[in-house]
Please model this.
Amino acid sequence: MLLALVSFELIDIFRWAYQLLADTGLPPVWVMLISYAVLGAVMFGVLALLALFLVWWERKIAGHIQQRFGPMRNGWHGWYQTIADAIKLLQKEDVTIDARDKFVFFWAPVICFVAAFLAYICIPFGKGLIVADLNIGILYIMAVTTFTVIALLMAGWGSNNKYALLGGMRSAAQVVSYEVPMVASILTVIIFAGSLSMVDIVKAQQGHAIFNWFVFRLPFGPIAFLTYIIAATAEANRVPFDIPEAEQELVAGFNVEYSGMKFAMFFLAEFVNMFTVSAIAVTLFFGGWSGPWLPSWVWFLLKTLGVVLLLMMFRWTYPRLRVDQLMEFAWKFLVPVTFANLILAALMKHLGWYW
Amino acid sequence: MPELRTEEYQINMGPHHPSTHGVCRLLLTMDGEKVVDAVPYVGYLHRSIEKICENRTYAMCIPILDRFEYVTAMSCNYVFSLAAEKLGQVEVPERAEYLRVIMLELNRIASHLIFFGTTAMDLGALTPFLYGLRERELIMDLFEMTCGQRLTYNYIRVGGVSRDIPPEFVPKCREAIKIIASKLPDYEGILNENPIWLARMKGIGHTDPQQAIAWGVSGPVLRASGVKYDLRRDDPYSIYPKFDFDVAVCWNGDNYDRYLVRIEEIRQSLKIVSQALDGLPDGDIRAKVKAKFKPPAGEVYVRIENSRGEMGVYLVSDGSEKPLRVKTRGGSYNQLQFLPEIVRGRGYLIADIVAIFATFDVIMPEVDR
Model:
């Protein structure tokens, strides 16, 4: 038992805790319910902390790119700045306008927040560290992450504000458009993995050091990764594709009327989404949790934060695209490229020209 | 199938909007995301500067006119002093003229650096703003060293300047010039070759030279549309004929050209400042002007080339110690009036309006006064 703790694989700790629970002699139904409740709470806690960490990290990165320090006052390099911010937002008065659509206005941030977390059911954080290894894993993730667009559209409509409505409409158009190249890039990987399950996709990339990672499978791998990361940036509503909230045009877009806790929900959901798309990128293209020496979950976290860093550097370097240019880019460039890439990959698979 | 009913709607951009650079209100008529018409509403920042000046002596007018166009407050000081000097026939010592030119050009650079930053920010790139302000800080430090102020200087007075530069000014200024000149390629590196930046800037907001002249547009907006017109060269004032500089000009009149013209103007201003530092003579910094300055009765209009176009003051004196009438002219006002002409019927989107507004470099205190 102690040996399990020494191995630093989190799954062993979970198994040990589960065994402890099972040994108490409770009915199996109770064991199952308690373990799922604990698991859910742990997942939620970890992700919420991760989102807070990402907010802080983004501010630090932005600061250093812009030749300043970012938060410095609260703790070492301002490490609890975002916690203080979150507490401030929790305490804030919930200011709303009278002319809102009450039901839609209230539920939009909730749906956005929940949808952001749903994807984590089948993301493998480490070896065996997955809530449910669904055999349609990636399909499930693609399906639930699309809930976000409904939430943004609801926020835009419920706010009864022209800026917010424009933001909501923009987000709907954008997410629906970029879903196509995103799924086409993912399909390229799935052709070679031969499975939709996230665990199987990771296992298909093991061996041959890093050369079995799909990002290194020439020539289709790098192209698929690039198209995926572009589409993912758009899915996560990040610069240069952040037109739904486009501060300089639409003031704050869909969340212009939100304040306090409701705003915090949108805000944290954005960062959770960013982590989601990065985690998918790592699982599909960078061999997921696999790596030498370090525990698997550490590898997963390191790789994912690397992709997050990339997204953050996009944000603080690029200007924003205009809404029509965004659509043109999706339909006239990304979609043809991804489909051509998909055909190429399918041909290579059929002819067996791959390793 | 029933026909889909669509209608145009109106949206208020401002008075509180992140990218209207102050309290400008643009009433946009929209067809979906397309802007059909834009009508600017001004007056939210009216401070009655011209009327207040009628109740102040000439010396007291200058700090008030600082607020006329606070991004380049040196120009406001200067243009009023120039008008008063022309009325009172005051001879300004040569050293004062040199100091004035140095300050005016440094302030032009500071203004264009703000333009660079805010334009990039309006287009969604947040980092260049910090870069622009970082270099502007060097210039602000120089001003602070000279006159103690960083925004509203009250430095250029009737007959000269308020005080001499400290001895460490010249080396510090040379260093600042060097740093700014070395950073300009960085700015171009982060924006000029960026495809998103080019897609947002090129071919948007085209201005026709005839049209621009007809609307009284001046400054970089006019020069970007291919009219080589710079008051420093065409209607010289102060000691500008002594310096060797080019008038930056571009030919397409779109957003990108307006941006290029301003970046080039930073280079030319750096050139002028370094020439002025080289030729800085010794001597008085202020002509003998009585404490109660009373110019003879008469009227005068003077104009200078500000960073936002022609800045002028029309001054009427009745021989007393207070001006009878002060009328100021700022480039921003004409450019804001020109904006609907550019926008109307061209099918631009909100994002384009923001970009055009940014590259026109309209600031509201100059419009409302």
